[in-house]
TrEMBL record:
Cofactor(s) this protein requires: Mg(2+)
Native species: Lacticaseibacillus hegangensis
NCBIfam families: MTHFS_bact
Classification via SUPFAM superfamilies: NagB/RpiA/CoA transferase-like (SSF100950)
Family note: Belongs to the 5-formyltetrahydrofolate cyclo-ligase family.
Superkingdom, natural source: Bacteria
E.C. numbers: 6.3.3.2
InterPro entries: FTHF_cligase (IPR002698), FTHF_cligase-like_sf (IPR024185), NagB/RpiA_transferase-like (IPR037171)
Keywords: ATP-binding, Ligase, Magnesium, Metal-binding, Nucleotide-binding
Keyword Ligase attributed: yes
Protein name: 5-formyltetrahydrofolate cyclo-ligase
């Protein structure tokens, strides 16, 4: 079995090579999300602004706004922590050190208790909820303290029958994994 960094490096290449396929699979995965009871009951949705190798989140953000839900986006903080804040809209987002659009930090506006968290990653095991992210541990640290529902949208290139990476005690399992 590869180490996490070895697996992540190889998987990121696979994701880049399959970016068009992931984009093509995005609409079906988003449709599955919008049909979930967890989606319907949530008033606040935490998601990310997707990159080119990820499931497109623009439709999620738009659907949430049309449904009157509040969209929360993560902002990276010191000590590999993450704060969720209301999406200020694309024109008012700032770019993080990782090149990811995020909301400006306003301490009084932090909401660490969204009703639903859509968790990103680079690979998932739907049978167990195992996930490997981009490598900084932000989501695992957040999810260790979060007790609400979690969902991941898993395109075919991210879908694994068993982990091809070490799953460690601090890796938080995702509750619901949607696949193509």
């Amino acid at each position: 079995m590869q180490t996490k960094p070895e697996f992540r490096k190889a998987q990121l290449k696979r994701l880049n090579d399959a970016a068009k396929q992931t984009q093509a699979e995005s609409a079906g995965l988003v449709a599955q999300l919008l049909a979930l009871p967890q989606w319907h009951s949530a008033r606040t949705i935490a998601t990310t602004v997707s990159g080119p190798i990820e499931v497109t989140t623009g439709g999620i953000i738009e659907a949430a706004q049309q449904a009157g839900k509040t969209v929360l986006l993560p902002r990276v903080m010191p000590h590999r922590q993450m704060a969720f804040l209301k999406d200020p809209g694309s024109a008012n987002r700032v770019t993080s050190k990782f090149g990811i659009p995020e909301p400006p930090y306003v301490e009084a506006a932090v909401d660490q208790h969204p009703d639903l968290v859509i968790v990103p990653g680079v690979a998932f095991v739907p049978a167990t909820g195992a996930r490997i992210g981009f490598g900084a541990g932000y989501y695992d640290r957040f999810l260790a303290k979060y007790d609400g529902p979690t969902v991941a949208l898993v395109p075919s290139v991210m879908n694994f029958a068993a982990p091809a990476w070490p799953v460690e005690a601090f890796d938080v399992l995702i509750q619901t994994l949607l696949t193509v």
